[in-house]
Amino acid sequence: MTEKSSNPxxxxxxxxxxxxxxxxxxxxxIQNGMFSQLTTARLRRSNIRKIVSLSLLFTVAFGTGxxxxxxxxxxxxxxxxxxxLAQVDNxxxxxxxxxxxxxxxxxxxxxxxxxxxxxxxxxxWIKDPYKVRELLYAEGWNKNLLMVHGSGIxxxxxxxxxxxxxxxxxxSRHPINDxxxxxxxxxxxDNVRRGIKGGELxxxxxxxxxxxxxxxxxxxxxxxxxxxxxxxxxxxxxxLDLEKKVPIKVQIYDWDNNLVEDxxxxxxxxNMNLTDADFSPKNPQYRF
Length: 288
Description:
Shape: globular
CATH superfamily of the largest domain: Lipoprotein localisation LolA/LolB/LppX
Number of helices: 6
Order of helices and strands: HHHHEEEEEEEHHEEEEE
Number of domains: 2
Largest sheet: 12 strands, antiparallel
CATH topology of the largest domain: outer membrane lipoprotein receptor (LolB), chain A
Helix content: 25-40%
CATH class of the largest domain: Mainly Beta
């Protein structure tokens, strides 16, 4: 073939389709062993430059197979999550909880979780180790005490507890007042905004991932590995539900990079028309 110029054509001169065809043709020739019949002396430098130029420009233009979609701004998704939750009056989910208490990673707890505004929470453990335990709390109700129906031998009676007292807090890192998606998003959001303002936040966006049957975006937030800086955690990994705009799985790591909190909201249903009966000890489906 006669070349029009001694200089290799640019990607734009060739056009994307032509560039792809030339690369494929050259690769096919290599595969068929045609280059084995050529000596290095006969392989013109212009052709080598053309192959390299086309390959590099093809990679830049079309990517290497990695995701080239719109990047997620950490502060923007926090604001979107807050806005999305502001439109939610109530929700229900299967709540997965695993926490590190006094240095020991406890067993995972699986809980039917109901929430309604103003702050009302009903929880029922549906798997061991605390199966059939029930908990009910509503701000301004029952003298702001937590109503608990235990499992095992403690399930014989229903007791009222101070939400922040030692009995209610046993085996938990947070009181019932801090449960739910609103508080979770607030804690993460406060750290993100502060980290951005201080220029101390590292943000990484990974591939999409299916979690609990939902299409999610994996995100990772890293802050200084220095507890004295006052951040809630060193590292947070979360899965953001791309449709609902809220995190449905969150893993939090301390300054030694140990997992300390692992929360998941499976089968999250927003605005389920939950009523006051869902948060009443007189509900016939409850055992208070």
